[in-house]
Amino acid sequence: MRTGASLAALLALASAIAAWAADPYPNRPIRLIVPYSVGGATDITSRIVAPHLGDSMGQQVVVDNRAGGASITGTDMVAKAAPDGYTILMASIAFGANAGLYVKLPYDPQKDFAPVSLVAIVPMVLAVHPSVPVRSVKELLALAKAKPGTLNYGSAGNGSANHLATELLKYMTATKIVHVPYKGGGPAVVAIVAGETSMLFATISSSLQHYKSGRLIPLAVSPSKRNTALPDVPTVAEAGVPGYDFFEWQGVVVPAGTPQAVIDRLHKETVKALTSPDARERIVGLGLDVAGSTPQQFAAHLNAEVARWKKVAKESGIVVDF
User: Fold this and answer.
1) Is 191 within 8 Å of 180 (Cβ atoms)?
2) Bridge partner list, 31
3) What CATH architecture is 124-221?
4) Beta strands in 107-246, from DSSP E residues, in sequence order
């Protein structure tokens, strides 16, 4: 029986190799699922990369927005798609964080996907409305501790980068700040500019104009190094929270079981697309850092993200459900 099973497996493999040789990948358009609505940072990056990736692959790469459920809807579509390289996902920080935030997911981010490459790193900026009587992170935290629960912060929703960045800050500083989720990053920025919320971790591209006009006050940037767009703004770690290091990220993953040859081709062409002067200039112009990686490096990053957010979610009590 074992011999028969082994023979069947070998025949199936030989058939797959023969099919591959006769029908090389890709031979039809590739669908790039973006699990968010049009206009967000992940969508914009995807639409910058897709044409360059398509040119390199010799087939059109179509961006398909499948928003909903804190990115879970679109991500689940890819988890259940055929592992043939024709349905791929532009994942973001929620991909790793949702495993800790949600009681039950319809997929396992570590078992149901194979990493291809990181694409971009997205720095965040901690900002306050001018009416908030603080001008530094230390003053903000002092106010939060003196009057727990009186400050609030906006986000693009549960599991969004704004949400996670602030919850990490609260976790590391033992402060109480009220979460006000909005239906997207754009509305969250509009809300703080209007004074509806006290503070927000915003992407540089969505908020830089408001710092220049004085409608928002930048206190610190979230990664461990300063940003060239705001060279005089300290990092959160420099400003009083040692060890704080947060950034949104974007990267390409495919369904588990995708042939290694397909993953290798996607990786090669994704990295090539990111080296295009046009793509690089446009991504950097949005305040992002280009971040091509090997599949192995991306896998290590994803594993670290899942572990980090499971710990933060458990110890801070930010677990949510559908």
Assistant:
1) yes
2) 62, 87
3) 3-Layer(aba) Sandwich (3.40)
4) 113-122, 124-128, 152-155, 178-181, 199-203, 217-221
Q: How many CB atoms lie within 10 A of CB 147?
A: 10
Q: Which CATH number fits domain 2-122+247-316: 3.90.1150.10, 3.40.190.150, 3.20.20.70, 3.40.50.150?
A: 3.40.190.150
Q: What is the mean pLDDT of residues 110-124?
A: 96
Average pLDDT over residues 10-32: 69
pTM of the full structure: 0.84
**What's the burial of 228, exposed, middle or buried (CB within 10 Å: 0-12/13-18/19+)?**
exposed
The answer to whether 59 and 26 are in contact (CB under 8 A) is yes
Structure tokens at 129: 């409305």
| Alpha helices (H) along 235-294 | 260-274, 277-285
Which strands, in side-by-side order, build the sheet including 152-155?
A: 178-181, 152-155, 199-203, 124-128, 217-221
Span 54-91, pLDDT tens digits = 999 999 999 999 988 889 999 999 999 999 999 999 99
Mean local confidence (pLDDT), 42-62: 95
